[in-house]
Specification:
Number of helices: 6
Distance between the termini: 53 Å
Length: about 280
């Protein structure tokens, strides 16, 4: 074999088709008639050109980052007459990273309930949630509230809301959207408030708190849904987030269970503009 090179181009000349024939013949089941013709008449049997490739390292690093990045959140399509989602897709992506367990990261989001779409009947709200849990058997839900002042707050829970307070769940938290487009998440771990920016979220660090219990209360008699409360609440503490009066108003207060500050400015009382509850569909990608 003869070779010539100019530094970036290597030309290899091989004038021994018998050697190529013997190599191919070693794979007898693949050495069919048209491959035999190829060995005899193909340019690669006699002459090959090799070129050095210039790889931009910046492009390589971008590809590596893209491999670790999750795709945009997929939402189940609704009728064209349905109202827009309260959250943008970038906000959904940030909340997915900040709030949801890894097992839910690739599941499509389904809007189970919308105040503007389904009305303010608490019975209707409870029916939508119950039907969802019965159909999919997954009680993980994300509650999003928009106030009349434009504030966006909410909570995530992996347990079914019931008419009696439930003990702390494996994964639940409260969150609020900040003016700069980030999210602050309160997950009940002391001194571990996390800020999550749209498009570049990060996870909370682990911590711990004693003597508190995350509670999720759904009281159809009083038309209340509430997050948190804790055991032996301190003075000034209350529900981390509570919606009442047919979703017309709500309250938020310091809650030992979530280690949170009130989710809205002022005295913690707010008027509700819209409410949405999202579930996560299993088996659709």
């Amino acid at each position: 074999m003869n070779t010539t090179s100019d530094g970036k181009h290597l030309r290899c000349r091989l004038f021994d088709p018998v050697l190529v024939w013997m190599a191919m013949a070693a794979h007898s089941s693949q050495f069919v008639w048209y491959r035999r013709l190829s060995v005899l008449f193909s340019r690669y049997t006699y002459l090959n050109d090799l070129y050095e490739l210039a790889i931009d390292p910046t492009l390589l690093s971008e590809e590596e980052e893209d491999e670790d990045a999750l795709p945009p959140v997929n939402t189940i399509e609704e009728d064209s007459s349905s109202p827009k989602f309260l959250l943008s897709n970038s906000q959904m992506v940030a909340l997915r990273e900040a709030v949801l367990p890894i097992g839910l990261h690739h599941r499509p989001w389904k809007r189970i309930y919308s105040l503007s779409r389904d009305g303010d009947s608490f019975v209707s709200f409870e029916k939508h949630i119950t039907n969802w849990n019965a159909k999919f058997g997954d009680s993980s839900t994300l509650l999003v509230v928009k106030t009349t002042k434009g504030e966006v707050i909410g909570g995530y829970a992996d347990a079914i809301a019931t008419s009696s307070p439930r003990p702390g769940t494996a994964r639940s938290c409260l969150f609020r959207a900040e003016k700069d487009g980030s999210f602050t998440v309160y997950d009940g771990k002391q001194n571990s408030l996390g800020t999550f920016f749209e498009g570049s979220p990060h996870r909370l660090k682990s911590g711990g708190t004693e003597g508190s219990s995350k509670k999720i209360l759904l009281d159809s008699t009083r038309s209340i849904i509430a997050f948190g409360g804790g055991i032996g609440m301190k003075s000034g503490d209350g529900f981390g987030l509570c919606l009442e009066d047919g979703f017309a108003r709500g309250t938020t207060a310091r809650c030992e269970a979530f280690c949170n500050e009130p989710l809205v400015e002022g005295d913690g009382v707010f008027d509700v503009l819209d409410v949405e509850v999202y579930g996560f569909v299993f088996g659709q990608f």
